[in-house]
Amino acid sequence: MKKLSKVAIITVLLGVLPLLIAGGYAIYRYSTAEERQRDEQIAWAKEMVAAKLLDGESARFRNVRVGPIGVCGEVNGKNSYGAYTGFSRFHVSGRPERGTEARAELEDKYNRKFLDQFCGS
Q: CB-based contacts of 14: which residues, under 8 Å, 6+ apart?
């Protein structure tokens, strides 16, 4: 009888332990509201930039970060021939939680200095 109860306890622990670990990771992953807000702002900015591309679903992002006046990063998208064009910088101003009007700017010869100033080179 004692063996059966030990087996039952071990079975329950092995079943519950992965759930506890997964739950702990979820709590750690979003330990603060600030981190969650940052992740939401980055996801929103990626959607804004992808909408400006010819094939938004093909967008690849890197070096994406939240700055004092918006989100900066680099994006690579496909052209009309289906080939990737290379990474270029972007900036998205505004914040989704404030309901402000957003602007997504992709790098071109006219806004290069702006991107250097606010996003770094």
A: none
Residue 3 — φ and ψ, nearest 5°? -65, -40
pLDDT digits over 76-94, tens only?
999 999 999 999 999 998 7
pTM attached to this predicted model: 0.69
What six digits make up the tokens of 53?
Answer: 């591309």
Q: Both tokens of residue 62?
A: 């890197």
Q: Which of 89, 38, 109 is nearest to 68 (CA)?
A: 38
CA dihedral 37, 40, 44, 45 (to 10 degrees): 70
Domain ranges of the chain: 1-31, 33-119
List b or e across 33-63, with b for residues whose CB sees 16 or more CB atoms inside 10 angstroms: eeeeeeeebbebbbebbbeebeebeebebee
